[in-house]
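Input/output pair, single chain:
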Amino acid sequence: MSNATSQPAEIYTKAISEVEVGEIVANLGEILEIEEAANAYTLVISRLGEKQVIKFEKQTLLILISSEYFIKVDMGRNI
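Output:
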């Protein structure tokens, strides 16, 4: 059984060209790496204890959550 805790979230949007490593993408996770290609940005995101690579078009607007407010879930592991 999980033990989730949360606090009021600060949610905001940002153009993908302006995001930075360490920011939290809503419903995905923390950005670990950012690569820019000719027609897209590729983000490496920490999700479910794994690194996942997701490609976004250059005009994408992302919904972010302030890192001090993201939900922490304890699935029997230490956080």
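The longest strand covers residues 29-36. The domain at 8-70 is CATH 2.30.30 (SH3 type barrels.).
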